[in-house]
Amino acid sequence: MTFVVPVVDISPYVTGTGDRAAVAAAMDAACREVGFVQVVGHGVDPALARGLGAAMDAFFALPPERKAAWRTAPEVNRGYSPPRSESLSLSLGVESASRMNDFFEAFNVGAAQSDYPHAPGLPQPDYAENTWPDVPGFRGAVEAWFAEAARVARALTRVFADALGLPVDFFDRMTGHSLDVLRMNNYALPPGSVELDGELTGMGEHTDYGIVTVLWADQVPGLQILAPDGGWRDVSPADGALLVNLGDVTTRLTNERWRSTLHRVKPPVVDGTVLRRRSAAFFHDGDVDAVVSVLPGCLAPGEDPKYLPVTVGEHVAAKLRGSRAGVVNTAADREAARVLAARG
Ligand SMILES: O=C(O)CCC(=O)C(=O)O
Ligand SMILES: [Fe+2]
């Protein structure tokens, strides 16, 4: 059964008219209870999603040896990641149940130093320049989507600020040169290329790392989230909705009033092969040098912070070393405990 993720219409924050307080209250409830939201009223032209999908289809259809030309070193979160080159569960320090890497392939683009001329000297490779495949129309379609996803992410941080009782521009002070990355995911396996057993994992269980993720996904099933009742639930976006989920930075800021919900991807197997599925996750992570510690309003009298302060850059780098370079992250014990509890 498909689990229904709460729907929040953010149009008052996009158009400037409407009841913002009601939106902020609905967002607070969704973030406390589920940590995943279907956002409508975001104002993104559906043609841009179609363009993104077409660009992804054109790139991922290339033969593996051509796609390999856009691989980068594991520490550079850009370009092409072939199937089985990453393991998301290692981002929070847990071996995958099958000890196999995830079978998704991806193409990553991100905000580069050249996007932030007002902030010279940003560290590399955090703000690496992008590598673009020579697929006609790819760069234009992806850049158009990236800009809109970034606009929606920034609108969401205004909703979050209101929902948390902060000044509406609170997040601006930690997102002036935000580490933003779009990961375009393709879940596909050639028929007969693998043993299809129960352990096949499109993308291993993980939490996202930053402030907020804006996720476009097609409606092929496969995305599952760890629901408040402790069970994994299938999630599929309603027509036109964008899925939005919270990352670890927000969990740390709120001392777990809001959670970075665990999720994973297991596309269905039909006629001996997996049903192809696509998604594109826009990660709005915050400035590399922003220090993440609990917001004063999120600590009750006598309550202790659950996390030590960390910079966005340190936190994201430890997670990426896990997923991209296979270096088990030992600094994510609270997220790892949730995974292990779900495995029973
Ligand atoms: O494919 C999906 O729907 C989810 C992708 C995801 O969780 C990610 O890229 O972090
Ligand atoms: Fe994710």
Automatic annotation (TrEMBL):
GTP-binding recorded as keyword: no
Q: Which UniProt keywords apply?
A: Antibiotic biosynthesis, Iron, Metal-binding, Oxidoreductase
Is Metal-binding one of the keywords UniProt gives this record? Answer: yes
UniProt xrefs under Gene3D superfamilies: B-lactam Antibiotic, Isopenicillin N Synthase, Chain
| Originating organism | Klenkia sesuvii
Name of protein: 2-oxoglutarate and iron-dependent oxygenase domain-containing protein
What are the residue boundaries of the Fe2OG dioxygenase domain, all occurrences included? 178-286
Q: Which family does it belong to?
A: Belongs to the iron/ascorbate-dependent oxidoreductase family.
Q: Which PANTHER family match?
A: 2-OXOGLUTARATE (2OG) AND FE(II)-DEPENDENT OXYGENASE SUPERFAMILY PROTEIN-RELATED
Q: What is the lineage of its organism?
A: Bacteria, Bacillati, Actinomycetota, Actinomycetes, Geodermatophilales
